[in-house]
Amino acid sequence: MKIFWTNEFNKNLKLLPTKTRRLYKKQENIFFVNWKDPRLHTKKLKGVNQIFSFRITRKYRVLFKITDKSSILFVSIGHRKNIYD
Questions:
Q1: Which of 19, 50, 59, 67 is a good FRET partner for 43, with 20 to 30 A between their CA atoms?
Q2: 2-5: strand order across its sheet
Q3: Residues 18-77: pLDDT tens digits?
Q4: Is CATH 3.30.2310.20 correct for 2-83?
Q5: Distance between CA atoms of residues 10 and 80, nearest Å
Q6: Contact 67/61 with Cβ under 8 angstroms?
């Protein structure tokens, strides 16, 4: 499976606190092995086709889209109160 990152995702990742970026890297490694791993708390967003989120911490989330059977696009990363806008 191939993973791609949007420019928005990369920009927002740089704005996160250092501790959160480190935790993101750990979660990303879990994601690469199994994106449905229960430690990620992966959820499908309602009303949006093929968009999912997974947890970094209780406050921060990653939004991703399954583009086809072999590709995933990391769309955005940020605080849970702002990321779903």
A1: 19
A2: 2-5, 71-79, 60-68, 51-55, 43-44
A3: 999 999 999 999 999 999 999 999 999 998 888 999 999 999 999 999 998 889 999 999
A4: yes
A5: 17
A6: no
